[in-house]
Fold:
Amino acid sequence: MPSLTKINRSAATLSKNRTEDSISPFSGMCVTCVDGCVGMCEIGKSAYRGHEVIYPQPFGMITTASEKDYPVDYSHFTILGTAVGAHGIEADSDKAIFPNVSLETKIGDLKFKLPIMIPGLGSTNIAHNNWEGLSIGTALAGTGLTIGENVVGMDVESEIVNGKVKKAPELDRRVKMFQKWQQNGFGVIVCQANVEDTRLGIQEYAIRELGVEAVELKWGQGAKDIGGEVKIKNLVKAQLLRKRGYVVLPDPLDENVVKAFEAGAFKEFERHSRVGMVTEESFIERVEELRAAGAKYIFLKTGAYRPADLARAVSYSSKAKIDLLTVDGAGGGTGMSPWRMMNEWGVPAVELHSLLYQYVDKLAKQGKHVPALAVAGGFTFEDQMFKGLALGAPYVKLLGMARGPLAAAMVGKTIGKRIYEGELPVFVERFGNNIEEIFVTAAEIKRHLGEEMFKELPTGAIGLYTYFERLAQGLRQLMCGSRKFTLAHIERNDIAALTHEAAEISKITYIMDVDREEVEKILA
Structure:
C-alpha cells in the first residue's frame, strides 16, 4: 500500500522536494539528499526557520485541512435510491417531486432552514476578515453560525476589569451583524468558550449584553488536540495578550526577545490557548451556571479524541441534558493548526461518527436523554451531507461545515471586489459584469429583501447564500431519489458500504448484502 501521507513536502508548509520522482515513502526525503541544497523541503526549511514551519502558511490568508488519504472515508459509501413509495409525502408522481422535499429541522425550539451549522470561527484573521459574508449569508440562509474561541481576548479594544470582560466591540459586531439580518427566527448565532473565555466571563456577557440565547462549551476540534493558536505580528499586541494571561511565545515581555524582534530575527509571535481539564462534575456545574445566567440552549463541541473521551462527551451531555453535541472528526480543517498534527493525530471522521452512533444508540435504548447531534470533518457537498445524516440517523440533525462556507464567502467577496475594479477574470465575466448577472440567486435575494437592503448586502454573503442554495437543491434531489421527503425520514439503510472494511467500521450493510431477505421474497 502506498504511503497515506505526504511527508516533508506540502503546499501547506510552502515546501517541496528537490527531486520529484525519487522520494523515500517512509521519510519523505529525497532518495539522494545533496550537500549544497538550499533546503526547499520541510526539513531544510526547518533548518533556518525552526518552529515556524510547524504551521500552515501564510497565516491569516488560508484555511487548511489534512491531505492524508485515510483508509476509509465517506466516499466508501453509496446512496441508495428506490423506484417505489414515498416517505413524508403522498406517493403521487405529481406531489413527490424534489422541490417539495423539506430540509427544515429543529433543535428544541431552534429552527433551521437547512441542516447546517458553521462551527467555531474564532480569532484568526481569516474569520475576522470574512465575518460579514459568513454572518449575513448564514442569517439569510437560516442556518447556524458559531463565534469561536478567543474573539474577546484577542480584541485590543476589549475592556477587561478584574479579570472579567466589560466591553467587547468585536464580539458585539459579530453578534449584532447576524441578528440584524436574521430572517423570521430561522438560524442561530452561538457563542463558544474555551478556558480563557470562560475565565473572562465571555458567555455571561454575551447572554446579558447581547441577547445571545445559545452558548457552546468547547473541548476541542478535529484538527488538533491542543488549544487555539494564532500568530501576532505586532509587539504591542503580543505584550497585551501576554498580560491578559495567554501563552505567548516567545515571551514578548522578555527584554532579549523584544530586542531580537526589533532586530528582525523573527517576525511573528505565537499565541496559544490552554487545554481544558474535563471532569463530569465541572462540566455539569458549568452547564448549570450557564442556565442560571440565562442561556436558553447549551451545546458542546468535541474533537477527534480517543474513544473514551467521546464516550465521556456523550455521557456527560446526556446527564447535563444539553441541546446539541457536535463531534468533529480528524482531517476536517482549521484556520491554524500544527500541520503534522492535523495529518497524524486523532480519530478520522467515519470511524469517529460510527462510534458516536453506537454510543448514543446505547443510551437511547436505555431510555436516557440523547442530545441532538452534529457531525463535522470535511463535509463540503450534498452527497456527503446525505451520508453523514444517514450514518448517524436518527440522532444526527446537523452537519458541521466551515471550510466550504468560508471558501464560498471568500470567493463572493473577491468577485465583488473584481466587479468594482473592473477586472473580472474571463471564466466569471462570461456570466456578466455586475452582481445581478453573475450571482444566480441575486434576483431572488433582492425580491426578498427589497432594493435598499440589497444595496447593503456584501457579495461575500451572496456567495455563501448561493453556495447553500446549491447544496439545498442537490440534497433535495438525492433525498427525492431515496423517496425521503423530510430529513426525519432519512435512515441508516439509505446508504450502503462499498467495502467490507467500511461495513465493519460503520455497521452499515455491505452493498452486496442489501435487501437480501426482501430480494428472496420478491423472487420467490
